[in-house]
Specification:
about 325 residues; disordered N terminus; disordered C terminus; two-stranded antiparallel sheet; about 65% helix; four-stranded antiparallel β-sheet; alpha+beta
């Protein structure tokens, strides 16, 4: 959710869109070269991982100072060296990382169109941007749940000019506007699982089952999250320890305390827990995904892990690392 004038992630710094698209294209070309048996795919993939690490390092100031998110700041700060290390490992011969390379490339190709494709005019009719369509659908469903809970905020134009914001008037007359932005739609998390499922080699029916397990759960949990944040922030239900919270986030507006607590603290921490749980469910449907998870753990810990045994996952034929 967004309160006030906080912008979407990819508009935080100049040329970030271009940076992200370059990384996505390089990952895609590297995966294609690897598929065709060219050794140049490994070198290009390693370089792309290095650029991806720079991308996350580039985003740390935005997450920390503009977006005011501790969780995302920490993830970006960890992601920068982790990406560089992944590139080094791949360059040194850890070929299983090509699966993760394909996954990240697919994630970017799924997500970036929602951030970058603008509205277009065809035959005199204006087709809305994909982001607008998705944001307004989520706002509609969030509003439906808010109504079911017995609240009646006014639906107004969001900070992006979409029909995707809720206007709350407090007893003291202060107005709080909560806008739905792209980060509120769950498309980022859905892109992650779309990329992971698409990257592994497995029968189509099991891939479809994995998507059927992950995507609906993500979407439903996300609508519950946007409803929770909107109601709590709009009614100032979590105006807890305001001096401490404002100091933590470097803010001064006391009416943002409930937003920080409900979104930046509670919702983002629960989102991490939910993604871990969904990953486990997906891995049970698609055991081939384990090689990716084991590679991620190796990058983070420097130790090999057998997640199939540790998590009691079914064993399926899959390409293991050489």
């Amino acid at each position: 959710m967004q309160s006030g004038v906080t912008e979407a992630v990819f508009t935080a710094v100049p040329d970030t869109f271009t940076f992200a698209w370059i990384v996505a294209v390089l990952f895609g070309i590297a995966a294609l070269l690897d598929y065709r048996g060219s050794d140049r795919g490994r070198d290009l993939a390693a370089a792309a991982w290095g650029l991806f690490g720079l991308f996350w390092l580039y985003m740390v100031p935005y997450f920390a100072f503009e977006h005011q998110s501790y969780v995302e700041s920490i993830l970006a700060l960890v992601g920068a060296p982790a990406c560089a290390y992944a590139g080094l490992l791949l360059y040194r011969g850890r070929s299983s990382l090509f699966v993760l390379t394909r996954a990240v490339g697919l994630m970017l190709f799924i997500y970036l169109p929602f951030e970058t494709i603008p509205a277009v005019t065809v035959a005199g009719a204006t087709l809305p941007a994909p982001r607008q369509v998705l944001i307004e659908i989520v706002a509609d469903q969030t509003g439906f749940l808010i109504d079911l809970l017995g609240y009646d905020p006014e639906r107004v134009t969001s900070t992006e000019g979409y029909d995707a914001a809720f206007r709350w008037v407090l007893p003291d007359g202060h107005v709080v506007r909560i806008s739905v932005v792209l980060a509120c739609t769950g498309i980022g998390s859905m892109a992650i699982f779309g990329g992971l499922v698409g990257a592994v080699s497995a029968p189509l029916n099991r891939k479809l089952r994995a998507l059927a397990v992950s995507l609906p759960i993500i979407y439903v949990l996300n609508i519950l999250r946007t409803t929770f944040i909107t109601v709590v922030a709009g009614n100032q239900y979590m105006h807890w320890y305001p001096e401490l919270v404002l100091a933590m986030f470097g803010a001064s507006d006391p009416y943002r305390v409930s937003f920080f607590v409900s979104d930046r603290i509670i919702s983002q921490l629960l989102a991490v827990v939910a993604l871990v749980g969904i990953t486990y469910l997906v891995a049970r449907e698609l055991p081939e995904l384990v090689v990716v998870l084991e590679d991620v753990l190796y990058i983070l810990t420097g130790e090999e892990h057998d997640l199939t045994e540790s998590l009691d996952l079914p064993r399926e034929p899959t390409n293991r690392r050489s």
